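Supplementary Methods. Inverse-folding protocol.

Structures were first reduced to a discrete structure-token string of length 76. This string, shown here, constituted the complete conditioning input.
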């Protein structure tokens, strides 16, 4: 998507990541001085055989995205 995000970005990315294991999701959030890159390829590599559909993984993704967006001073 090449447009401003609407809504809860962390929840959207967690759900989108779990939709199809063959699809990789890359999300780049840029503000005036910082960038945050979310890439499911990196997560899949770390998790090895644990699917992104696992509820604990989805919760982790949501928390991770929230923390990283906060670290770059993202405001809704």
């Amino acid at each position: 998507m090449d447009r401003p995000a609407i809504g809860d970005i962390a929840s959207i990315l967690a759900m989108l990541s779990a939709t199809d294991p063959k699809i990789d999701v890359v999300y780049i959030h840029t503000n005036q001085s910082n960038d945050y890159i979310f890439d499911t390829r990196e997560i899949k590599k770390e998790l090895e055989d644990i699917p992104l559909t696992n509820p604990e993984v989805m919760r982790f993704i949501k928390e991770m995205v929230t923390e990283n967006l906060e670290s770059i001073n993202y405001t809704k």
